[in-house]
Design brief:
This protein has helices at residues 2-7, 28-38, 41-46, 53-74, 126-135, 147-158, 171-180, 185-194, 201-212, 221-225, 233-246, 253-259, 276-279, 282-299, and strands at residues 11-14, 112-115, 140-144, 216-220. By secondary structure, the protein is mainly α. The chain has a two-stranded parallel sheet. The longest helix is centred in the first third of the chain and has 22 residues, at 53-74. It starts with a helix and ends with a helix.
Length: 303
């Protein structure tokens, strides 16, 4: 999904690690507008983008980060990657206007796709939900994957089997050491299927409302991955077209589809559908269906 959004012309902010050409980039005009709207008036007056371009870039980078952190709080991202946003009174950057906590989402910079793995819609800022309900904007996309493959991916991620170097707190602090201490892969899966805090059940259940919402575009990993990941080219083309139409993007669907399976992507590990079939023993199939079988039914995956 990240690669698709980058190919559709978006910069990406959130939990994924985008490619260099997918990071948000702002013009001087966009930086000035953002600073004027959200930076403390006295600090804004001190900006001089002509005489001190480096200082202007540094300060407006901080304005963007604080705005982004504030929206992580307002969107009830769980877990919150940046704990500073929990305490907005803390001085971790230039002084901001209080409007950073009340302005509509439409005042955030254009062309940025906000991607989060888990949000709690029931704790979202009500002004955001009202804006979304009344205007249909921002456009919301729910991207999901076979929960069994997600579980395998989680085990790989937390036990450092995938070669990635970043951490995701608080889970990495707990699940990482636990799973690293278990040598047998089957027993890793046993643990993941038994720990009630493993982030699978709650994340999928919190997405069920979006799955049925008429103002949400739904697309699965299996649809997007295409033949390189074990999927279908026709299904991939239809999925890319559906997302592009949803975002009002007029693009070459064939060319975009050709480019979204990126082996060099920072977070792509195997990129294949049905990995759980290789990893699960018969006992894991039974354990999964006993605990998570309803998710397979709800999201349309065969048992």
């Amino acid at each position: 999904m990240q690669e698709l959004l980058v190919r559709l012309g978006y910069g990406v902010y959130g939990e994924p690690v985008p490619p260099s050409d997918g990071r948000p980039a702002f013009s001087v005009r966009e930086r000035l507008d953002m600073a004027e709207q959200f930076l403390d008036p006295a600090e804004f007056e001190a900006l001089d983008h002509e005489r001190d371009r480096d200082g202007f870039i540094r300060t407006t980078d901080q304005v963007w980060l604080q705005l982004a952190w504030a929206w992580q709080t307002r969107l009830a991202v769980t877990p919150l990657p940046h704990v500073e946003a929990i305490a907005p009174e803390a001085r971790f950057g230039p002084t901001m206007r209080p409007e950073i906590w009340t302005a509509p989402f439409s005042t955030t910079p254009a062309g940025v796709s906000w991607i989060f793995h888990s949000v709690d819609v029931w704790r979202m800022d009500n002004t955001f939900l009202a804006e979304w309900t009344n205007t249909g904007s921002p456009k919301v996309i729910l991207n999901y994957r076979d929960p069994r493959d997600v579980l395998v991916s989680l085990v790989d991620f937390f036990s450092r089997n995938n070669g990635l170097t970043f951490m995701r707190y608080p889970e990495s602090a707990i699940f990482g050491p636990v799973l690293e201490s278990i040598e047998d892969y089957g027993k890793k899966l046993d643990y993941a299927l038994s720990d009630p805090q493993m982030p699978l059940l709650s994340d999928f259940e919190s997405a069920i409302s979006f799955l049925h919402h008429p103002n949400v575009c739904r697309v699965s990993f299996e649809e997007l991955v295409g033949p390189q990941g074990g999927g279908s080219r026709e299904v991939q083309l239809n999925a890319v077209r559906r997302v592009a139409d949803w975002l009002d993007k007029d693009v070459d669907i064939e060319a975009v589809s050709d480019s979204i399976f990126n082996p060099g992507s920072f977070t792509l590990n195997k990129g294949r559908t049905g990995r759980w079939r290789e990893a699960f023993a018969p006992r894991h199939v039974k354990q999964f269906e006993a605990r998570f079988g309803h998710l397979l039914d709800t999201f349309g995956y065969e048992r």
